[in-house]
Amino acid sequence: MELKQQLKMSQQLVMTPQLQQAIKLLQMSRMELVETVHQEMLENPVLEETPENQEPSTEGASQSADGDSGPEPTAQSTSASENESESEPEPSNGEGEIDWERYMENHANQAPMPGGGVRAGGDELPGIEATVATSQDLVDHLEWQLHMGEFLDEELRFAALVFGNLDDRGYLTMEGMAPAEVVPKLAEEAQLDPEDAEEVLSMIQQMDPVGVAARDVSECLLIQAKHFDMDALALRVLAEHLTNLERKNYNAIAKALQVEVEEIYDIAQAIMDLEPRPARNFVTSEAQYIVPDVSVQKIGDEYVVVANDDGMPKLRISGFYRSAMKGDPQAKEYIQNKLRSAQWLIRSIDQRRRTIERVTECIVAKQHDFFEKGIEHLKPMILRDVAEEVGMHESTISRVTSNKYVATPRGTLELKYFFNSAIRRGSSAEDIASESVKQAIKKFIEGEEPTKPYSDQKLVELLREQNVVIARRTVAKYREMMGIVSSSKRKKYF
After folding, report:
1. What is the DSSP letter of 423?
2. Beta strands in 169-270 (DSSP E)
3. Cα-atom radius of gyration of the chain, to the nearest Å?
4. What confidence score (pLDDT) does residue 100 get?
5. N or C, which terminus of the chain has less Cβ within 10 Å?
6. Taking Cα atoms as reference points, which of 470, 415, 417, 414 lies closest to residue 441?
7. Are residues 142 and 270 in the same domain?
8. Do both 89 and 190 map to the same domain?
9. What is the pLDDT of residue 223?
10. Residue 149 and residue 218 share a domain
11. Are 434 and 421 in contact (CB under 8 A)?
């Protein structure tokens, strides 16, 4: 045995605060984003909202004449040049500080994104009656993701039992049982091998929201930390020192792990951004008023995706603090930090906007027949189909499509609406989307004789005539999902 010193170079994904912020903004609904932006404006004096009727080009000329700064860069103006916003290095004076003069010069002539209640092309946004949506239940959200995969019947039974035993936090618990006893018990009820049950549970825990169905807070945070590729030291802190972390006893953690306490501070800050209650955003019983994030408009023979910027604050970086940076080192450092934070927020909002547009464009391209001919022509589509097309991870597509809405010629729909599992048809025909089958069942029931309603078996036969072959229990499941009672309860005797 001998001791050696070696240099080793490796690459790993670091979960930076900026990346965490971008992920958080991406999964927010529109209303949550607006609230977050308003909160950031209160906390960051460098951020301000562009006046509604400001004309950037003329204002820039007049201000320059007075020796003042031109119009500031805005959250919308960064989208004017995608390459610039993504690849242009941050202006610097060579000492790690932002060169304010150069930054202002680079962005002086870029205009803010239009706001107001009118879309591009002069079309008005949908009325308030078209923007009412019921709140979504966590179990519905998880079942939707579950049906995008391929599971055996016993695995589906086990998953259903897991969903039925989630508490308000999103944890998997059973009264009177230790956490380690829950999965074997549910596996036994589902007639599933315990090892296979643990594998299915692990897949559920990777669904959105990440960490759902964990058995305690430690497991929940560890799942999220691994999902976001946090380093080994952070994983050790969560696995071995959660109690001290909760008590903020950072010195004890640093001593136990033989590292500097500053490293523990940084890890604690990163862990604070994790979500200990995955079900938090799904606990609501109030109606939600929604505004579409994007709209789909038909121009000629093409469908065009247009971002909806109505009601979204048009952010810019204030020029007021330019003079405050001169002669006061403390003020200069403070403003530098706030400026970086403002720049990242503006870029993250713009990236969120472009990501939603890009995913929507892919959905529109794949579901072209739906927009042209209606629900009967909705195609089977899963998260992987869009993820592969746009070059993103499936979990990212799930975040983009959750709580995001699109105004289309066929109504205001959640982006998630377009994802459906496939129902196999005859050998000579293409697969059909499960949503199309549901609508076909609904149409048959609407046209039935009230005194002679169709039984589930009769609906199976009617679907078979349309070359759609599914089991009777599947028809019953779809009928119940649409809130339609059985034939015996639909029958009218007079």
Report:
1. E
2. none
3. 27
4. 45
5. N
6. 470
7. yes
8. no
9. 94
10. yes
11. yes
> Cβ distance 166 to 212 under 8 Å?
yes
Residues 231 and 261 in one domain: yes
Last-in-domain residue among 353, 368, 389: 353
* Domain total of the chain: 3
Do 223 and 274 fall into the same domain? yes
User: What is the C-alpha separation between 217 and 223, in angstroms, rounded?
Assistant: 10
Quick check: is 182 in a domain? Answer: yes
- Over range 451-462, report the average pLDDT: 90
Residue 191 DSSP one-character state? T
113-to-52, 73, 108, 315 alpha-carbon distances in Å: 11, 11, 14, 10
Rounded distance between C-alpha atoms, residue 62 and residue 66, angstroms: 7
Beta bridge partners of 317: 47
* Whether residue 318 sits in one domain with residue 447: no
Q: Tokens in use for 350?
A: 């713009």
Q: What percent of the chain has pLDDT over 90?
A: 24
Residues 283-296 pLDDT 10s: 655 556 778 889 99
Q: Which residue has the tokens 């945070």?
A: 221
Identify the domain boundary among 229, 247, 281.
281
Least confident interval from 233-237, 317-321, 423-427? 423-427
Tell me how crowded residue 280 is: count the other CB atoms within 10 A of its CB. Answer: 14
- Could you tell me where the beta strands, DSSP code E, fall in 328-374? none
Which CATH number characterizes residue 467's domain?
1.10.10.60
- Map tokens 């002069």 to a residue: 122
Cβ neighbors of 467 (< 8 A, separation 6 or more) are 425, 426, 429
In a domain, 45, yes or no: yes
Instruction: Say if CB 470 and CB 463 are below 8 A apart.
Output: yes
Shared-domain flag, residues 169 and 264: yes
Q: CA angle, 263 as apex, 275 and 17 as ends, to 5°? A: 45
The DSSP-derived string for 131-179 is SEEPPPPHHHHHHHHHTTS---HHHHHHHHHHHHTB-TTS-B--TTS-H
CA within 13 Å, CB half, 59: 16
Task: Tell whether 402 is covered by a domain.
Answer: no
Rounded Cα distance between 44 and 446, Å, is 56
Q: Are 412 and 130 in contact (CB under 8 A)?
A: yes
**366, part of any domain:** no
Range of the domain at 315: 18-117+307-353
